[in-house]
Design a protein that fits this description.
Layout (H helix, E strand, L loop, with lengths): L1 E3 L7 H11 L6 E3 L5 E2 L2 H12 L6 E6 L4 E6 L6 E5 L10 H14 L4 E4 L2 H7 L4 H6 L9 E3 L7 E3 L9 E2 L5 E2 L4 E4 L9 H5 L6 E4 L5 E4 L10 H14 L1 H11 L5 H6 L8
Antiparallel strand pairs: 1-6, 1-7, 2-3, 2-4, 4-5, 5-6, 7-12, 8-9, 10-11, 12-14, 13-14
């Protein structure tokens, strides 16, 4: 689960709420600086208070237990984001639907810009350019296209645009993609109009919340991503709303200063 949020909502008070509501496992390690340490709630609070005592607040907070993790990033040039990766053991205590409801509320309360939920395994392979990794894992390269490797021009790499679940990120961290569940806020509509997103009717669910944000679920079961019918829906969403066309324009434009960086001057990694 990943959500991109406005800078102004990342306050010490809100972070304390998020730690209570969104960390759905018992952390054993933490990091706010360069060194990972044993999790200690009092020490974490002291470190956060120190960070927020500065005039400019930039950090990456990581909590994990080796199988699940919670990462809050507030960088220099990117919009803040929350990235949660939950091991299946978490679902023994709380269902996927209950987790989704938590994030539905979060997105509305904190004016989310864009968010998505996806299987970590699927996310890894849909964005993997390593041909050898596919061969070693006996994964099919049928219908996959290739392009010159970025670093070794005499070699080839997988073109991830062969896959319906590939990601694009703008310089500011705005996500463009197609996944099991997605959230789109009012600030996203300058990229893809609200009406265009609401008009997509080939998925499992398309809802508009009271705050005018949108939740789209492409298929019913998050773990059934590899079914041909669900892959077809992923592709259709990309094409109907023009995700890739918009993403390419935004990314090319972001090579020069744009309105996000000029206005916010702020600075995430895709789910594995």
């Amino acid at each position: 689960m990943k959500m991109v949020i406005p800078e102004e909502v990342v306050t010490l008070q809100n972070i304390n709420k998020w730690l209570d509501e969104l960390v759905l496992f018992s952390p054993t390690k933490m990091r706010t600086k360069l060194t990972e340490r044993k999790f200690n709630v009092k020490q974490l609070q002291r470190e956060l208070e120190t960070l927020f005592s500065n005039e400019e607040v930039y950090f990456q907070l990581d909590l994990n237990d080796d199988t699940s993790s919670f990462t809050l990033t507030k960088g220099v040039r990117q919009l803040p984001s929350i990235l949660c990766m939950f091991n299946k053991s978490v679902y023994d205590k709380i269902s996927v639907n209950e987790i989704v409801e938590k994030f539905n509320s979060f997105f509305q309360i904190y004016n989310g810009i864009v968010g998505y939920a996806v299987s970590c395994e699927d996310q890894t392979w849909q964005n993997n350019t390593d041909i050898e990794a596919f061969i070693e894992s006996n994964r099919s390269l049928e219908h996959v296209t290739f392009k010159p490797d970025f670093f070794h021009k005499d070699k080839e790499m997988i073109d991830i645009e062969s896959f319906p679940g590939h990601n694009h990120f703008s310089k500011e961290g705005i996500w463009f993609g197609s996944s099991w569940k997605m959230w789109f806020g009012k600030k996203y509509y300058s990229f893809i109009p609200k009406d265009k997103l609401l008009a997509f009717s080939d998925g499992f669910q398309n809802l508009e919340f009271n705050d005018e944000s949108i939740s789209i679920v492409l298929y019913e079961n998050i773990w059934e991503y590899d079914k041909p019918i669900n892959r077809a829906i992923q592709w259709k969403f990309r094409k109907v709303v023009g995700i890739d066309e918009v993403a390419h324009k935004v990314i090319n434009k972001s090579k020069t200063p744009n309105r996000w960086s000029e206005r916010l001057n702020i600075s995430v990694e895709p789910l594995r």
